[in-house]
Amino acid sequence: MWKKRLVYSISLIVGMTLVTTIFFQNTIVKGIDEPRISHKVDVIMSTKVSRPGCETTDSCYTPSKITIKQGSLVTWMNEDSAFHSVTSGFYDEPNELFDSGYLDPQQSFTFSFEDIGTYNYFCTLHPWMKGQVIVQLD
Ligand SMILES: [Cu+2]
Predict the structure, then answer these.
(1) pLDDT tens, 95-131?
(2) Do both 68 and 7 map to the same domain?
(3) Rounded to the nearest whole angstrom, what is the distance from the C-alpha of residue 50 to the centroid of ligand 1?
(4) Which domain holds residue 89?
(5) Do both 34 and 48 map to the same domain?
(6) In angstroms, what is the span from residue 105 Cα to ligand 1's centroid?
(7) Distance 47 CA to ligand 1 centre (A)
């Protein structure tokens, strides 16, 4: 009789562990994917900006300058075939407020701007790529 109970207890523990693991895995995946799907694209890195030239027409990031309300999200999308980054500050003076890291083609990056101000950003791979986000009072 006690053997039956032991087997029953063990299967219950294993079952609960499995259910919990699956539940938490789903939660984590959802948390990462949702912001990318739900938010629109604000700034595009278009094709061929990995070669100098876009800076002459101020089109390395399109648009290169955007104005948003405090607390808004900005999403950048890499539509080029090369890697790019969205990194706060200037090429010779990054300020570590945000950094997308290397974005693959078709990959996006979203940042939430909580404070009023003017935020310069650049691409760590292509020094001529520069943009600006202006955050105003809501
Ligand atoms: Cu770049």
Answers:
(1) 999 999 999 999 999 999 999 999 999 999 999 999 9
(2) no
(3) 5
(4) 43-136
(5) no
(6) 11
(7) 10
